[in-house]
Amino acid sequence: MDETAVQATLSQLPAVNEILGESDVVGLIERFGRDPVATSVRRELEETRGALRADPAATVPTAPELAQQVRAWFAREERPNLRRVLNATGIVLHTGLGRAPLAAEALQAVQENGGYCNLETDLESGKRSHRGDSVRELLCELTGAEAATVVNNNAAATVLTLRALAAGREVLVSRGQLIEIGGSFRLPDIMETSGALLREIGTTNRTHRSDYEQALSARTALLLRVHSSNYRVVGFVKSTPLVELVELARRAGVRVVDDIGSGALFDIPGLTGGHEPLARESVAAGADVVLFSGDKLLGGPQAGIIVGTADCVELIERDPLMRVVRVDKLALAALEATLRLHRDRQLALTRIPLYQMLSQTEAQLQRRAKALRRRLLRMLPGLDCQVVRTASFVGGGSVPAEEMPSSAVAIRPTGLSLDEAARRLRTGKLAVFPRLEQDQLLFDLRTIQPGEEAALATALASAVTEEIAVRGAR
């Protein structure tokens, strides 16, 4: 078709103002304003012109049809980029999905403090206060420490602590504890950033007390113990207990920092992969500073928690970097509510979602999986789904060897690929993340919160309806 014919086809397209006058678009203008809607209309027309140039024989869309396309574009754009998902992977602390889900009390605290709040103001005196005051006493109460402060994550807590207590001096660390955390951040790099000087001692699998004794010198600022929360070394291994490190440090006049990583405040039922270090134990053993995360085994928001002696915490808080890594009001509100639940162990176990998920028995999960399968078959009679035994994981760089028996609903699509089915689930009105395993989609009940089954079934039905229809027509 020559250019004259192409132009004749393009001339049949409705004008911008005609599309703006369509009822669907008028409603958009009332919500979003005329300029953004007009820009969207022009973009839609430009794309249509390109399509018609590529295929001049194609049908020219009408003004109502283009209006519907503009409305569909705004419907997609209106959805926030960060939104709620259903975690059916069986990985409880899924880093990609936000790690620990917050307790209802923490969510309420976030909502209540979203506006003005006394973040850095003392209500009694009306004077300026410290933004960590809302959680300081709670952390001291729960860990037995003299003082406490909070930053935005545990990596920041490590950098800040090493910078404040050991910049320009040596820090002794066992080679077996030179960990790498998510995003390829390695402890040696973090230490270099802080200005402290790394002194590796011992070997990957064995570090003795004598290794620390031989490495101690006038250049030593502190001994650092790092919990290998995201891996395990087993077999012919040895590490020096914290109490012995404290004894050595006291004799040498240096400090001990214990980075326990995941940050449990009590032994958590359901975990059988070995004892996780507790903050209170480290404080009682004499560590000058203890570091841990807020969004792992504590079950709270992302935060780096620093507890220890009053002189050490004061030095840390006086460092200029403290302002760079300080925590915001919403995280503090959620953390305070989470810590208040920890005052009563039984209350924490029943109210914090992390502990609820970890404490579910295999029998409970199997009952829930069977109920979900029945619900799905009522909605989708042709669906190929079974209840299967599987394994859940703590995840989030915590308790790496922990594998918990669980139950899942396994779905085997036949009219579309697993990848396409998973994509539809992720991009639906409510995003769902299953686990892909052995040509099946697994929906692990451990990480599906009680009460989410109906929403999951609806999302699944929407994702596979086309596949069911195709199979039923064969």
Structure characterization notes:
The structure is a single chain. The protein has 20 helices and 15 strands. The longest helix has 21 residues, at 34-54. Mean pLDDT is 90; it is low at 468-474. Helix 12 links the parallel strand 8 (255-261) and strand 9 (289-293). Helix content is 45%, strand content 17%. Strands 2-10-9-8-7-3-6 form a 7-stranded mixed beta sheet, with helices on both faces. By secondary structure, it is α/β, with parallel strands linked by helices.
Please outline the helices and strands.
Layout: H1 3-10, H2 16-20, H3 23-32, H4 34-54, H5 63-78, E1 85-87, H6 104-112, H7 133-143, E2 147-151, H8 154-166, E3 170-174, E4 180-181, E5 185-186, H9 187-194, E6 197-201, H10 209-215, E7 220-226, H11 242-252, E8 255-261, H12 279-285, E9 289-293, E10 304-308, H13 310-318, H14 321-324, H15 329-342, H16 345-351, H17 353-359, H18 362-379, E11 385-395, E12 398-411, H19 418-427, E13 431-433, E14 435-437, E15 440-444, H20 453-472
Parallel strand pairs: 1-13, 3-6, 3-7, 7-8, 8-9
Antiparallel strand pairs: 2-10, 4-5, 9-10, 11-12, 12-15, 14-15
Helix pairs in contact: 3-4, 3-5, 4-5, 6-15, 7-15, 8-9, 8-13, 16-17, 18-20
